[in-house]
Design brief:
- The protein has about 220 residues and is mainly α.
- The radius of gyration is 22 Å and the shape is flat.
- The chain has ten helices and no strands.
- The termini are far apart.
Length: about 220
């Protein structure tokens, strides 16, 4: 019985393998040697398809952008942007290494550019001026990426939390001098530790605040 032959190595396979490996070990730990091992090839073979690690990271970011739903063109702009942001948050939860890199690359790929063009087009179709569109895109994505970074760093959120929230809270409270930090203690015991609490639930709350504020600014014409 012979082993099933591997699929031929292509640029797409290199990038998909790099994304899968970064999901496991993080992008900083990603090396050409580790990637080659994961792909079952020799390191030099990869260079037939990419120009090095920076080229790989550019491609990885473009793949993440390709996973984010474009704002639907048949929706109201607020609803369309909201759907896009919810999709983006899920993509960033799948690829927790990606948030710091999404806007840092100087050689954006086609999926990245298609995404940016679609978001800008959605805001403009909604009647937002160019100035307000600039404010909107910057504010929305600052919130989106910032929330993703914070969520990824929490020890009690995600599929494999490093510690249970009640254990973390109990340890913190036990370390406090008696009577110290009463507001924090009230917030923790009377809200955070109640059934159903999720830090992630604040994402949609914050997103809706931003979108509502942008709508008011558009109606007021303050940025026309």
């Amino acid at each position: 019985m012979t082993d099933k032959p591997r699929d031929p190595l292509t640029r797409d396979r290199v990038l998909e393998g790099a994304v899968a490996l970064a999901d496991k070990i993080g992008v900083d730990a990603l090396t050409m040697r580790k990637l080659a091992t994961a792909l079952g090839v020799k390191p030099m073979t990869i260079y037939h398809h990419v120009n090095g690690k920076e080229d790989i990271i550019d491609g990885m970011v473009d793949l993440v952008f390709s996973e984010i739903a474009l704002p639907p063109t048949d929706h109201d702009w607020k609803l369309a942007i909201r759907e896009r942001c919810l999709s983006a948050r899920q993509a960033l939860k799948r690829h927790r290494w990606a948030a710091p890199l999404m806007e840092s690359r100087t050689s954006p790929g086609p999926a990245t550019m298609t995404h940016h063009d679609a978001v800008i087009g959605c805001l403009r179709r909604g009647g937002l001026s160019l100035q307000l569109t600039a404010h909107a895109y910057a504010t929305i994505d600052a919130f989106l990426y910032g929330f993703a970074l914070q969520e990824a760093s929490l020890p009690f959120e995600g599929e494999t939390p490093t510690i249970q929230l009640d254990e973390l809270a109990a340890g913190l409270v036990a370390a406090f001098p008696e009577g110290a930090y009463p507001s924090f203690l009230e917030f923790t015991t009377d809200h955070v530790l109640k059934p159903g609490y999720s830090f992630g639930a604040s994402f949609e709350f914050g997103l809706d605040l931003i979108l509502d504020g942008l709508e008011r600014a558009s109606v007021d014409g303050r940025f026309d």
